[in-house]
């Protein structure tokens, strides 16, 4: 249902904020209310992209687009973690080095 869908977006948003180490308190988000506009206000994104998002009439479609942004933030954080200067073990996905 709608609340379950919104909970997934909240979890992704919170994970992305933690991964990016944003030093701001996480907002209280209510999964029983429309969420996409509140989440969109909290991210820095291209103005035209944000405007297109806000023009969508369907909450689920807006959340899907926001989820893409949150997943990309998590993926970028994971990639940076694998390439970190202290990670010389070669662990992680991909072909094994030799």
What is the secondary structure topology, with strand pairs?
Blueprint: H1 2-19, H2 36-41, H3 47-55, H4 59-82
Report on the structure:
The chain is mostly helical and 98 residues long. The protein has one domain (2-81). 58% of the residues lie in helices and 0% in strands. It has helices spanning 2-19, 36-41, 47-55, 59-82. α1 packs parallel to α4 (59-82). It starts with a helix and ends in a 16-residue tail after the last helix.
Which features would summarize this protein structure in a list?
98 residues; mainly alpha; 4 helices; globular
- Major sheet size, sense and barrel closure: none
* Mean pLDDT rating: 82
| DSSP helix fraction | 55-70%
Low-confidence stretches: 87-98
Category by helix and strand content = mainly alpha
Tally the helices.
Answer: 4
Cα gyration radius (Å): 16 Å
Describe the global form.
globular
Beta-strand content bin? under 5%
Multimerization state: single chain
Q: How many strand segments?
A: 0
Provide the domain count.
Answer: 1
Give the H and E element order: HHHH
Distance between the termini: 49 Å
């Amino acid at each position: 249902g709608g609340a379950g869908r919104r909970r997934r977006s909240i979890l992704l948003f919170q994970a992305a904020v933690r991964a990016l180490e944003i030093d701001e308190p996480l907002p209280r988000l209510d999964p029983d209310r429309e969420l996409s506009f509140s989440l969109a206000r909290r991210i820095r994104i291209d103005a035209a992209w944000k405007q297109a998002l806000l023009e969508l009439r369907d909450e689920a479609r807006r959340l899907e687009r926001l989820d893409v942004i949150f997943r990309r933030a998590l993926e970028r954080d994971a990639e940076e973690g694998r390439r970190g200067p202290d990670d010389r073990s070669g662990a992680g996905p991909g072909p094994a080095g030799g």
